[in-house]
Amino acid sequence: MKKMITLIYSPRELTEELQGLITTLAEEFPLRERGRGTRVTFRKVDSEGFVSRVIQEKPGTICIEYSSITAAARGIGSALAGLKGEETTSFRTLGIMIDLSRNLVMKPSYFKYWFRRLALAGYNSLWLYTEDVYQLPGEPLFGYQRGGYSLEDLQDLDRFARKLGIELSGCIQTLGHMEQFLKWKNARTVKDTDTVMLVDEPATYQLIEKMLTFWDKALSSRRIHIGLDETHDLGRGRFMDIHGYEPPLTILNRHLGKVNEMCAAHGFTPMIWSDMYFRLSNPDQNYYDLTSPIPDEIRESIPKNVRMVYWDYENTDPAVYAGMIRRHYDLGFKPIMGSGIQTWMRFWFDHEQTCRMFLPALEACKQEKVDEFYFTMWSDDGAYCNYSSTLADMYFCADLIYGGDGKKRAAARFDAICQSDYAAHMAVSVMSNDLPKIDLWNGGLLWDDPLLGILYDDYDRRCPGFAKELIARYKKIIRKAAPLAGTGKAGDFAHICNLLRVLVLKLELRQKLLAAYSTGNRAQLRRIANQSIPPLIEAVRIFDESFRVQWMACGRPYGLERVQGRNALVIARLNEVARRIGEYLAGDISAIEELESRMDADGPVDLTFQRYRRVSSAAAWN
């Protein structure tokens, strides 16, 4: 871990905005009014773009030249890490979107931990992705048992973020992705389909007005993200029953017009995810179709004040990104770029996948003059990522945005500010690297039923011997990460080692079980039941406990039950494996049917996973 430089400043020399920034940072970082350390002064420079310079004026004294409060914050981050020199960027906004709607709702205190570290890396915007996790007056089932934020929570966070030069904006949904609210009987009047609200229904707009009124009071930002993405079945539920068929693109556009007028009444400039304008322009709903035109009547009626966010987590070719950006320009809009730091369906950030998404997007944005860049951090399938680990990738990405190479300077900044080990974070991130023909999913390996082996068998068909390779990979990571357990202020190395130990034992168990059963090795089956399964059950219990510690440290308790239930089912099913082996060895059953029911290795199979319910069982879920 790199020691931070203590910075000594004079309060009399600070502007009001610098005073707020420095006193907020000084609550946690070594910025002092007096004492021993490096003397720091500040000088604001006129510049059309971002400029941050750390200049050594004489021994023991530095000057931070800055063009904005964001530039000053990044300059302080550089100084704390002992970095000097100039940094510039063509981007005026560097932001993060944090998914708070898939079980984990972060505590306000944890957000403050993040805000300081984001500011010191040069981030100046954060979107709170909140589908129904805020307390909406008059709607008791909105976010019921979900741990939603109160108005006071958000007002306090807003005041804190503004001191650090961070604009906090609501990122909500006003059409689709509302299944957590629409599942309640009381919501039936605003329900089109299971996930989409009912367009043209007065009650829908009364609900949206409540949403906008809440966010108007909650945050000072006049930008609000109103969603509208992935409404694939728009107009095909109750809307069709009431009004008959209408082209979804027409419905979408009319709805946006109404919500935009409501936003204007609150002084909001709305942002939307732009995907459905492109999807609904072609029969396959292909987001990346670069040829199908959007009808002129639709193009001309899209409100011109709306900001479109082009999200893309799939493409690796800069030309595709550039083509999609130009499609936005052709539509009449300069897009905001939404890339991703790969946190979803991961226990630790996936650096390799982040680079696949981010690097081509960055290249295209520079080429096409896009100047607002956001990193989404989704929590699909249960929010089980170790979120503090992702700061390493945030610092990597920020370094590239500000003209670095994501290596030495990013590591120095991260190691000092986060008091952790950048190289170790990157070493652990390879746990999710794919194998040939396998899009690796560690959550699936953890929760894959140990007797049915749905995911294991599919992986073994695609990549024979995959388990041996993964076991070696995981053991190597454990050797690197275990000595760091309990150290640092980012990344829980002890917890990730607990996970990897479970995965190693579980993969070994499946290997032994299949080999022993297929060869009729009764002695080995007995050893599996008596010697292999008990330590694996204990390893799952240890992992479950450290997962709870991780969750409760950063989030509210709601949603934890989802992951605890999965872990408990693994233990129950491991006990069932031992029981089935016992029945087989005792002669109570002539075969273990679950091990007999395995797919032909050469079968034309293409299974799609990445969701817990697809690996825990093949049984019906209704």
Features:
622 residues, alpha/beta, Double Stranded RNA Binding Domain, Four Helix Bundle (Hemerythrin (Met), subunit A), 8-stranded parallel β-sheet
Structural notes for this entry:
- With 622 residues, the chain is α/β, with parallel strands linked by helices.
- Helix 3 packs parallel to helix 4, helix 4 packs across helix 6 and helix 19 packs antiparallel against helix 20.
- The longest helix is centred in the last third of the chain and has 33 residues.
- The strands form 2 sheets. Strands 9-8-7-14-13-12-11-10 form an 8-stranded parallel beta sheet.
- The chain is globular.
- The chain folds into 3 domains: 83 residues, N-acetyl-beta-d-glucosaminidase (Double Stranded RNA Binding Domain), CATH 3.30.160; 328 residues, Alpha-Beta Barrel (TIM Barrel), CATH 3.20.20; 181 residues, Four Helix Bundle (Hemerythrin (Met), subunit A) (Up-down Bundle), CATH 1.20.120.670.
- The chain starts with 6 loop residues before the first strand and ends in a 26-residue tail after the last helix.
- The model has no long low-confidence stretch (mean pLDDT 95).
* Known CATH architecture of the largest domain: Alpha-Beta Barrel
- What are the low-pLDDT stretches, counting only 5+ consecutive residues below 50? none
Number of strands: 14
Query: What's the CATH first level of the largest domain?
Result: Alpha Beta
The name of the CATH superfamily of the largest domain reads Glycosidases
Q: Helix share of residues?
A: 40-55%
